[in-house]
Amino acid sequence: MSAPVVAAASLRAEHLSREYPSGEGRVLALAPFTHTFPSGLTAVVGPSGSGKSTLLNLLAGFDRPTTGQVWVGGTDLTALSEAQRADFRLAHYGFVFQNHNLVGILSAQENVEFPLTLAGVPPRERQARARELLAQVGLENRAGHLPSQLSGGEAQRVAIARALAGNPAVLLADEPTGNLDTRTGERILALLQGAAGAGRTVVLITHDRDIAARADHHLSVLDGVVTPA
Ligand SMILES: Nc1ncnc2c1ncn2[C@@H]1O[C@H](COP(=O)(O)OP(=O)(O)OP(=O)(O)O)[C@@H](O)[C@H]1O
Ligand SMILES: [Mg+2]
C-alpha cells in the first residue's frame, strides 16, 4: 500500500542490550543482540515479560540501551540527542500500538494528518495524503469520526494510516491485533503485509501464532535472548 518507499533504510541492532534496576540487583531485559532486519515483515514472538517491548522501544529510540547501537541506514540512533531522535523518528519511522493511541479530540482525518503537520507539510498536501491513506485502509467514509466513534478495528486502521503518513522506511508494531477479533486482526495483518511489500522494514510483535506464521521473517525472544526462529 501507499507510494513506493523512496529510500529504504536498513535497520540494524548491534550488541544491543538493556538492563533495568530491580531491587538491589539488575534484570537483563535484553541480552546483547546483533541483527540486521531485512525489508519485509519480521514477526517477533515470545512469552509475556520476555523482552519484546524492550527490544521494540530500543529500536524506536524511545528507550536508551545499556550497551550497543541501533543503525538506521548510516545513522546511529543511540548517538542522537532526544530532540534529534524525535525528528529522526518523524522522518523515518511509523508506529502502531496495541491501543491505537489516536488523539481523542481529533477526527480520523486529523489524526492521520497529525505527523505531517508536525513535519511541516502544507495543509492541502497533508489533507490529500490523509484522504488517500484513509481510502487505502477502507475508511474514507469515517474521516470525520472521532476515535470514540470508531470501532476498535477501525481505530487501529486509522492508526496504521497515520503510521504510514510520512512514508516511513521502518514500521514498528507492538501487538497491533491484540485487542481485535480474528477477522479484524487478519485485516490489520494484510495492511502490515502491504506496507512491508512496498519495501519497508516492518517489525511486528505478536502473541498470535497464526499471524506470526505468515510473516516473511521470524525472531523469538525468551528471557531476554533473541534468536532467529
Ligand atoms: N521500565 C522498566 N523497569 C524495570 N523493569 C522493566 C521495565 N520495563 C520492562 N521491565 C522488565 O523487563 C522484562 C521484559 O519486559 P517487556 O515489557 O519487554 O516484555 P514483553 O515481552 O513485551 O511482555 P508482554 O508480552 O507482556 O508485553 C520484564 O521482566 C519486565 O518486568
Ligand atoms: Mg510488551
TrEMBL record:
PROSITE patterns: ABC_TRANSPORTER_1, ABC_TRANSPORTER_2. SMART domains: AAA. The lineage of its organism: Bacteria, Thermotogati, Deinococcota, Deinococci, Deinococcales. The keyword Transmembrane does not apply. Residues 11-229 form the ABC transporter domain. GO terms for molecular function: ATP binding. This is ABC transporter ATP-binding protein. SUPFAM superfamilies: P-loop containing nucleoside triphosphate hydrolases (SSF52540). PANTHER family: ABC TRANSPORTER RELATED (PTHR24220:SF685), IMPORT ATP-BINDING PROTEIN (PTHR24220). Pfam families: ABC_tran. Keywords: ATP-binding, Nucleotide-binding, Transport. Gene3D superfamilies: P-loop containing nucleotide triphosphate hydrolases. The keyword Transport applies. It comes from Deinococcus hohokamensis.
